[in-house]
Amino acid sequence: MGRSTDRMCPARALNNPLRRKFAPGSRETAFLDLAPGQVVADLGTGVGFLLPSILDRIGSNGRLYAADVDRENLDIARDNVKADPRVQFLERSAAQVPEIPDEGVDRACLSLVLCCMLDKQGALDEVWRVLRPGGLVMCTYPPAVPRFGPSLAVSKKVWKELVGHHPWEVVPVKQGVLVHRHLLRKPARETGRTETRSPRKDPAVTAGLEKEQGSYPKATP
């Protein structure tokens, strides 16, 4: 039998010594090439594990949306950033954050959240909606394990289906020890405004979507 509800993770599972050692927030957020003044959405923020590192990189003029369905974890996240005025907390699913306007953010995170959601496609669709052209999203999730069940696990087949709904550009990214990591870019428009907030260029897209979907690279420390 499949699950009928999303999986709620206890706070200790979202901020633990193993995660702090092998996937610290400073390392994870570095893949997003964050810069001062950017607007970021951390969807499925949990206890706010990534929030301090994001805030360090976006500077005093940056803004951050932090959304999660678990009120208790969201309260912990608030305490972690000491009610920083740059952060807007939203008690929302990653699949539905109407407070964020269309093309309203430069970067987005779906860190260890897809493996807890039934509506995974809704989360990717919502990220597509809120990202500006040229914006990046980082998605991470653990390998498929029995305790998640088939309705929550993110297999290679599931991932292929998720990213196939929009013309994402795949940005090569180093894999983690304990998680699969994907970096996707929303293509810039051929005409009109493109992303100009970051002073640095995004990494070149050197691997096609089909290549990434075929197999996961070996994990490296």
Radius of gyration: 16 Å
Estimated structural class: alpha/beta
Which ranges are low-confidence, i.e. pLDDT below 50, for 5 or more consecutive residues? 1-5, 191-221
How far do the termini sit from each other? 36 Å
CATH superfamily: Vaccinia Virus protein VP39
Give the neighbour order of strands across the main sheet. Answer: 3-2-1-4-5-7-6
Q: How many β strands by DSSP? A: 7
Describe the structure.
The protein is an alpha/beta fold and 221 residues long. The protein has one domain (11-214): 3-Layer(aba) Sandwich (Rossmann fold), CATH 3.40.50.150. Helix content is 27%, strand content 19%. The chain has helices spanning 11-14, 17-22, 25-30, 51-58, 71-80, 120-130, 156-163, 209-214, and strands at residues 39-43, 63-67, 87-90, 105-111, 131-141, 169-171, 180-185. Strands 3-2-1-4-5-7-6 form a seven-stranded mixed β-sheet. The radius of gyration is 16 Å and the shape is globular.
Based on the model shown, name its key terms.
alpha/beta; 221 residues; single chain; disordered N terminus; Rossmann fold; seven-stranded mixed sheet; 7 strands
Compact overview of the structure:
With 221 residues, the chain is α/β, with parallel strands linked by helices.
